[in-house]
Design goal:
Largest sheet: none
Distance between the termini: 34 Å
Strand content: under 5%
Number of strands: 0
Shape: globular
Number of domains: 1
Length: 283
Amino acid sequence: MQNSFIKFNKNFLNNFLLVSSSVLRNFRTYVYLFFIPIFILAIFSWFNGGINSHYKPTKLFLFMMIPTYAVVFLVNISISEWKNSVFLKRIHSAGISKTEFLLSIWAFNFLAGIVAFIIGICTLEILGLLYLKPIEESISATLNSIKFTEWIGILYAISLNILISIAIGTIISGLIKSVALSQSLTILIVAFCIVFSDNLLPIDLMAINKGIVIFSYFIPQKHSVWIGLISSSANNLNWIMENADRKIVSFNYNLTLVSFTGLLYVVLLSIGAYFSFGWNNKK
């Protein structure tokens, strides 16, 4: 038992280092994780009238979530290209199990997602300096107003969204042989999920129609988004939407409920990712 545990840890570490070196050597990695999210953050902030001191922590949280979606593209393109090369074949022939490999690549991409999240916060600070007037409160002051317990909920939401992105990227790359088709499908799915997760469109608009709200529950990212929204709202529903009594409030504003459903989605998607993954494109 002990020898098996030591062997597992050794294989995991070796795979982690191998995956890290392979991914970090590619300039595309930095485009996916940093350049594209920064560009989208800039466009998103401009679309919303600029980052200003009137933004509540709930609004800033939605900005923070944007970089976490980028991980899905990195996972998808990496696995898709590896399956069409000898990279995975060599790992598999070395006696590495599917579990060991997936854990290593998921661990690396999870850390990459956290780094992208941190870069996103730094980008918010810079955008705040560009948009804010001298008399307005800084973005740092707004972020510092978030309590420790609220940050725990936000980080939990960020972590779940990264894991959801990794799982979706793994599933798509496992089911689609063509790299180009896999990436195209990923773009469509992520765009669709962002729209219906309440991360892009105004929540007040989405909350008008009960059918749309019910349909959006099938979007995995919807759950992680609302974990962060509820956590950062300081028990004030009006920070999320105006005139909430006239609208459909997702998850009945219940943090415990959405925390459970969000975790459930991660588990289900992880199982799907495991069974969809193959060492190559041969069926």
